[in-house]
Amino acid sequence: MTRRELLAAAVATSAASAGETIVTLGPGDSIEAALANGAKTVVLSPGIYRGLRIRTPGVTIRSAVKWKAVVLGSEDHGVFIEAPGVTVDGLEVAGSRVDGIKASADNVAIRNCWVHNNCAQGIAIHGRKRWTIERNLIEFNGQHPQLQHGIYADGEDGVVSANVVRHNSGYGVQLYPAIRGVRVVNNLIHGHGKKGAIVLAAPAGRSLIANNTIADNAYGVRLMGGAGQVIANNIIVGPDPVSKDPDAGEPVLHSNLFDDPKFVDRAREIYFLAPGSPAIGKASAEFAPETDFWGRGRPADLGGVPFHASLGEPASRAAWHNGWPYRFSAIDPKMEMPDLWRDPR
């Protein structure tokens, strides 16, 4: 049998035995063929993929091992989602000539991905509804500080949650030109020296920016248009923590910390809270998201990453490269990216 025939047989067998059809593919296999044969979940084996284009609604594309299915060096967008209801989970996406992950459909979810060193945006979604960007590491994307950002999105009812967004060319999160009803919660956004952490262009509707740690950017949150946007429970360290254009209405500011929060090691970009931090226990329950960075109950602390005593201990960083929370090598396990999303309990 040909590879395509084997694939079709595997799909048929799976469909007969379970409600959801799951197919595991390697770098040489065709995702389009799997989807054409009815797969609802495609699991990508570790390896290098040269670009993914998803045109089938309601499917999930995920890596068998987090960050081991690597979409590398695409001539276009690394992952291009053109159908509604698609979930992309656990991929590494790097070196794309355009955006790392581009979505042009409603009800899209991008989760647990490492999106880095792409030529344009890290993740881009425009004019779409009910999208989710969560638990991703988005870093070193873009070449132009005015035009290319970590996340560049607009539309309605979007969620940006529990991401680490750092050192992108322009803004960390640019929600522009028109956002409505977005929730930006539990994120760590730092190192955008040319531009700010968050731009919120919300001419209509109420949006929420809550429980984020925003540090060492050119400025913090910039508001463009609209009124009544809620900015609450954030730690914002650096110049101009909250600013607005002349035509922007007044926001609702509640329980934000703009002074020194006592990070564990700010110089090494370790933005965990140290014992005695003034951010501990100060979050307003009224504005806090339902869960914290690790998916636990409603956070009591300000900022994106709640206090946990173990995170301030040297042992928690013993395997990091000279104490830095960065990945330097895909080969040496001692130089792997630390799992910042692991619940420290």
Give the SSE layout.
Elements: H1 3-17, E1 22-25, H2 31-36, E2 41-44, E3 47-49, E4 52-54, E5 60-63, E6 69-72, E7 79-81, E8 87-89, E9 92-94, E10 101-103, E11 109-111, E12 114-116, E13 123-129, E14 132-134, E15 137-139, E16 151-156, E17 159-161, E18 164-166, E19 173-180, E20 183-185, E21 188-190, E22 198-201, E23 208-210, E24 213-215, E25 221-224, E26 230-232, E27 235-237, E28 242-244, E29 252-254, E30 263-265, E31 270-273
Parallel strand pairs: 1-2, 2-5, 3-6, 4-7, 5-8, 6-9, 7-10, 8-11, 9-12, 10-13, 11-14, 12-15, 13-16, 14-17, 15-18, 16-19, 17-20, 18-21, 19-22, 20-23, 21-24, 22-25, 23-26, 24-27, 25-28, 26-29
Antiparallel strand pairs: 30-31
Q: What is shown here, in short?
A:
The chain is mainly β. It has helices spanning 3-17, 31-36; strands at residues 22-25, 41-44, 47-49, 52-54, 60-63, 69-72, 79-81, 87-89, 92-94, 101-103, 109-111, 114-116, 123-129, 132-134, 137-139, 151-156, 159-161, 164-166, 173-180, 183-185, 188-190, 198-201, 208-210, 213-215, 221-224, 230-232, 235-237, 242-244, 252-254, 263-265, 270-273. The longest helix is centred in the first third of the chain and has 15 residues, at 3-17.
